[in-house]
Amino acid sequence: MAYQVLARKYRPKRFADVVGQDHVTVTLMNALTQQRIAHGYIFSGHRGIGKTTIARILAAALNCRNPIGSDLRPNAEPCEVCESCLEIRAGNATDVIEIDAATNRGIDEIRELRDAARYAPSRDKYKIYILDEAHQITDAAFNALLKTLEEPPDHVIFMMATTQPEDIPQTVRSRCQHFSFHAVKLVDILGQLRAIAAHEGVEADEAALSLLAEAGDGSMRDALSIMDQAIASAPVEDGKARLEAAQIRELMGTVPNAVFERIMEAVDQNQSAEVMTVANQLLDAGNSPAQLARQAVRYLRNCLIARISGLTEDSTEGAAAELLQISPDEQRRATRTAARFTEEELTRFLQTMLRTFDELGYRQEQRFHFELGLLKLVHLRRLLPIEDALSQLAQGRPSPAKSAPATPPRQSPPATPAPVPPPTPAKPAFSPFAADQSRRRFEGIAPGQAPGPAQSTAQFSTQPTVQPQAPIPPPVPVAAPAPVSPPPVPAPMAAPPATAIAAPELVAAPIPEPPAPKPPAGEDSPATRLQSAAIDALIAAKSQTSAADALGDATWEITGEDLNIQTELSKTMLRVVINPEAEKILRTTLTQSGNGALRLNLLPLGDKPAAPKKARAPRSGSAQAKALEHPVVQRAQSLFHAEIRNVIDLRPDES
């Protein structure tokens, strides 16, 4: 008999022989026992995990000539001795038609299948159609099969195996029972390989079998195919092939994960030269950059899972081991690497290597891109997480990089603290009727007498104008002068209107406060200190040297609430040299020095600060002009340095 590969030789013949698909086999055996047979099945899942195999076993169980519960068939498993079971196993059964849907995918082939399905089976109980790779069938062909699937004859059963169930129309899926197959676990593949190696008389250590199981990537057929190839290339000792881990790695073109552990140690120690040296050794040995990147991605993924699940070197079982699906030795290696980095760092490493692996598919110089991807891992180690940077900024501390040496900042002269104005004394609480009584006293009206209809009221302020930013010296105590009696009120006239003036109680004349002193023009003036602090801040920014030079040659002057900076630049060059970033640094310096309330005015060459607006002279004959001519108002202005703000004309309209 010709040689059979291991995947065909050890293909399961019973439901119990299928590894890793208990949720499917148990359901189908219960359905067979209860005679709950559907007319359509869809088996979907990873490649090489038993979809077509279970379809054949189910077909043999349906057409088995021995009833369930007999001596030859005690359960729902096929008996494997009757003529139908033997023909189905050999693949030459008349009533079990297996069609490769990848090549017979057109509407003509499906029409032939639909026409043949109308006829009864030639010998067995059911006529079974097994459509392999069913997702390859066209939409028109599925539409032609739709009516047959919805109302099939009693003797027809359809079984469709596919790796892409989403490509099958929903109308077809809704008419079939859908079984989703799972990828085979590493432990199950390892146990099957161990049993096959013992049956074949092959000596294999545990590390070699673990490599074969990992290479299968959840597919039993892939693991058996690689094992068949490894046995053919293995050295023979005493008539038995011997499988070793090094020989299997060389066969698959992979490198041991100890190399990647060494690379990650160099990344942790910030040694770029060591990383490039190891990469050069791997590439000079003939390894493919794409294969190395793929292994690096898998290794980093295992390290990330080990870090997330809290796996330790002592614990090789549990939920973490189920997630990793690698051998215990590889679990310990991944745990050692994961302990060196945080979860965020491992996530960034994995993302970088995934991008590198994707780029290698369409890059010509794959070696250079692979080396660049490894070098990025070292650079990512030097970055500071955004959370740490924000927390340090909130605490007012700089945020240097992790491994970069701290550069001493440029020392600037200590800034003189801004003068703190003395606390303003609380204003006395006056009675709400005090203004009304004082107004009547000035006009010679008794407190209980109402004013006449032809009267006007003038309100004035007794507070002198003071610059808010200028430091105010504390008042010097001076003895209050003698009370000043109000001037005599002239006799009332018939025609001229009387002017009522709202004023506080004239008990003692307040001491006029001295005017705000102008800031000194020397080197210790507030403007000079602001200029020095701003220049230092611009120089520290390193990209605003031109702005620092321009502001150093400018003239700084504080006038009231304005900070006027007279530069020597033209209007066009002013916005080029002192750009928005430099202006932002300048305003930040003003805020930090306690002068954030100043209005910043950048003046080009030839411009002068705008002069303060003068009060408009009152119109002749108006109520404000007559109020200013009143002797009581003039006296109050001279005594209190008062300023009239508002005049209300209470005279009736003569029109």
Give the topology, please.
Layout: H1 6-9, H2 22-34, E1 40-44, H3 51-63, H4 83-90, E2 96-100, H5 107-116, E3 127-132, H6 139-150, E4 156-162, H7 170-173, E5 177-180, H8 186-200, E6 203-204, H9 206-216, H10 220-233, E7 236-237, E8 240-243, H11 245-252, H12 257-268, H13 272-284, H14 289-309, H15 319-324, H16 328-338, H17 343-359, H18 366-382, H19 386-394, H20 434-442, E9 455-461, E10 498-502, H21 526-540, H22 545-552, E11 555-559, E12 562-566, H23 571-577, H24 580-592, E13 599-603, H25 623-629, H26 631-640, E14 643-648
Parallel strand pairs: 1-4, 1-5, 2-3, 3-4, 6-8, 9-10, 12-13
Antiparallel strand pairs: 7-8, 9-14, 11-12
Helix pairs in contact: 3-4, 5-6, 8-9, 9-10, 9-11, 12-13, 12-16, 13-18, 14-16, 14-17, 17-18, 21-22, 21-24
Write up this protein.
44% of the residues lie in helices and 10% in strands. The protein is of the alpha/beta class. The chain folds into five domains: 6-180, P-loop containing nucleotide triphosphate hydrolases (Rossmann fold), CATH 3.40.50; 186-252, Helicase, Ruva Protein, domain 3, CATH 1.10.8.60; 257-382, Up-down Bundle (Zinc Finger, Delta Prime, domain 3); 526-603, GMP Synthetase, Chain A, domain 3, CATH 3.30.300; 618-655, no CATH class. A five-stranded parallel beta sheet has the order 2-3-4-1-5, covered by helices on one side. A three-stranded mixed beta sheet has the order 6-8-7. 27% of the residues are buried. Residues 403-416, 423-472, 478-485, 489-512 and 514-522 have low confidence and may be disordered.
